[in-house]
Structures are given as structure tokens and as C-alpha cells.
Design goal:
Elements (H helix, E strand, L loop, with lengths): L2 H8 L5 E5 L5 E6 L3 E6 L4 E7 L26 E2 L24 E8 L3 E9 L2 H6 L4 E9 L3 E9 L5 E3 L1 E3 L2 E3 L6 E4 L5 E4 L5 E4 L4 E2 L4 E6 L5 E5 L4 E8 L3 E6 L1 H7 L11 E8 L5 E3 L4 E10 L1
Antiparallel strand pairs: 1-2, 2-3, 3-4, 5-11, 6-7, 7-8, 8-9, 9-23, 10-22, 11-21, 12-21, 13-16, 13-18, 14-15, 14-17, 17-20, 18-19, 19-23, 20-21
The protein binds 6-O-phosphono-beta-D-tagatofuranose.
């Protein structure tokens, strides 16, 4: 179905339309009484969320590619069915397959509170089976309103159990990274992926004054990003997740990424809702698992 046909079939007056975005990719553009949002069907990738009463919540690189099969830089990449590197196949893409594939738009419907719900599907195919030889159906629901609600449901439609790791790899917009602190990880164990790495336990708030790439375990509560320069805090509540990642590439790594501005690290911070490392999840035949997050500004 081409973009015009999708818009005819799914477009909803006062809620959303389907339009060509950067690179000619199909986007769902949501504009309702409470917020605006943009979702690329390539990767089912939320690239913008802007509640009426506050500014843009997500950070998107101005240098991001927009091509099928290439990860967008920023917004909310979907890491599935593995987070980080593949377990053993060096040729496999970082962070899995879901963010690289064209998803099927299933519905756009009103939500009770003047919001809008966009639902997309991805099913197993020859490309996915080359790296993940299982039958599955992914259903990703994005609820756009005063809050941004995300639910990624994995359904095992095959005859064998499979294990996944996954993440909603959210890039948040901040005004000054040097004046940001993150709460919600106090007392949590973490794996530090920077340099020689190592393990630690978080004490108090996280501040960003260097490259930070930490995978936390045992964190089930909300994360709160205090962005002093914008005088706002962004809350990330979650469900079915006891792990999370905090990442900022800082100066050197920012300059090494071709789709990332050299000074981009000053205005972004990833706080990711995950099932990663020991929080990997087994999905049995006929069963499903839903990773959820709810994001709002306070
Ligand atoms: O979640 C943090 C991380 O795993 C970092 O190590 C960094 O690689 C980041 O993801 C971005 O990964 P990407 O494949 O999108 O460049």
C-alpha cells in the first residue's frame, strides 16, 4: 500500500495523517488537541513527541539517515530481539532487526482523553529468520496525548520458546547536559561499558560529565531526568522491565559518529527502558510479553 492509500485508509481527521517524510519514508504525523508526534513506519520509530504544554521531548540528530535498513539516529529506536551486539554473530546488526525494517500500519484510533493511538505490526520474514529463526508477531502501540505511552508486545507464534533482550532506546532532548541529573537508579547495580568497563552500584543521582554507558539491573521504578536549564523534569515510568541504560557519548564518541553532530552530546541523553543482560526474557509458544513505558513532562 503506498502512502496515499495508507492516508486514505488510516488518516483520521483531527488526529493523524500518513505522509512522506525525510527520504520519502512513510510517516504517521499525529496532531491532536494534546500533542504532536511523528512516527516513521521504517522501524516504527517515534522521531518527535511534543505535548501542547511543553516543548519537544525527544532529541533527533540533524544528521540522521532516513533509508530503509539504516537505523535512524535519535527519537525512540526499537532494539529487538537483542539489545547491543548479537550473542555470537558478528555480522548481525547492532540492537537487532526491528528498527531496520518497514512495519505495517494497523490502525489509528482516538484515545479517550482526546489522544490518539497508533498501532503497527512486524511479523517474522526471511530477513528476520536469517538472524532469529523463530515465528513471532510484534505489535507496537504508541499513545499520543498529554503523555506518550509505548507498548511493544512480543507474541511467540511458533512452536519453540525463544529468549529476547530488548529496549525502547529513547533519546531525550535536554537543554544543557552539564546541568542534568537523573534519579531512579539509586542502589542499582550497573555494568559500565566505557573503557575497561566494570561493575558498580549507583549512589544517588547520575550526573553526566564524561562518556556514560551504563546498563542497570534491578531498576523497576520510574526514572526522572531533571533538566535544570529548561526548568523541566521528564519522567519515564515503565512496566515489565527491571533493567535500564543511561548513555551519553560525550565529546570523543560524538565526533566519531557520522550521523551525530560533534556537539550533539550537549543536548541529548538516552534513558532506556529495557530487558537487557540478566533481565533477558523467555517467551513460550503462544505466549506474549509487553515492554511498556509512559513518558511525561512535569
Ligand atoms: O544503549 C547504549 C548503546 O548500546 C551504546 O553503547 C551506543 O552503541 C548506543 O547504544 C547507540 O547504538 P547505535 O547502534 O544506535 O549506534
Amino acid at each position: 500500500m503506498d502512502i496515499e492509500e495508507m492516508d486514505k485508509r488510516f488518516g483520521l481527521e483531527g488526529h493523524a495523517s500518513v505522509e512522506a517524510g525525510p527520504g520519502g519514508l512513510p510517516f504517521v504525523k499525529v496532531a491532536n488537541a494534546l500533542a504532536k508526534a511523528e512516527i516513521s513506519l521504517m522501524g516504527a520509530h517515534v522521531t518527535s513527541y511534543c505535548p501542547k504544554r511543553s516543548g519537544e521531548v525527544l532529541w533527533m540528530s540533524p544528521l540522521s539517515k532516513f533509508e530503509v535498513g539504516k537505523a535512524l539516529r535519535g527519537g525512540i529506536p526499537l532494539c529487538w530481539p537483542w539489545f547491543g551486539k548479537h550473542g555470537f554473530d558478528e555480522s548481525a546488526p547492532m540492537h537487532g532487526l526491528a528498527r531496520l525494517m518497514m512495519w505495517e500500519l494497523v490502525s489509528i484510533v482516538p484515545n479517550g482523553d482526546e489522544g490518539t493511538v497508533v498501532t503497527m505490526h512486524l511479523r517474522d520474514n526471511a530477513e528476520t529468520r536469517a538472524y532469529f529463526n523463530y515465528a513471532f508477531e510484534l505489535e507496537y502501540t504508541v499513545r499520543v496525548g498529554a503523555r506518550l505511552g509505548l507498548s511493544m508486545r512480543t507474541l511467540n507464534t511458533g512452536g519453540a520458546p525463544f529468549v529476547i533482550t530488548q529496549a525502547l532506546h529513547t533519546y531525550f532532548r535536554v537543554w544543557d547536559i552539564t546541568r542534568v541529573s537523573v534519579d531512579g537508579f539509586d542502589g542499582c547495580r550497573y555494568l559500565d561499558k566505557v573503557g575497561a568497563g566494570g561493575n558498580g552500584v549507583q549512589h544517588g543521582s547520575i550526573v553526566i560529565d564524561r562518556e556514560v554507558d551504563e546498563v542497570f539491573q534491578g531498576c523497576v521504578g520510574p526514572a526522572v531526568i531533571h533538566d535544570a536549564a529548561s526548568e523541566r523534569s521528564i519522567v519515564v515510568e515503565k512496566s515489565n522491565s527491571s533493567s535500564g541504560i543511561v548513555w551519553n557519548p560525550w565529546i570523543a564518541k560524538s565526533s566519531r559518529m557520522v550521523d551525530f553532530p560533534d556537539d550533539g552530546y550537549k543536548e541529548m541523553l538516552c534513558v532506556e527502558t529495557a530487558n537487557a543482560l540478566e533481565d533477558a526474557r523467555c517467551v513460550k509458544p503462544g505466549e506474549s510479553l509487553t515492554l511498556g513505558a509512559e513518558i511525561y513532562v512535569k
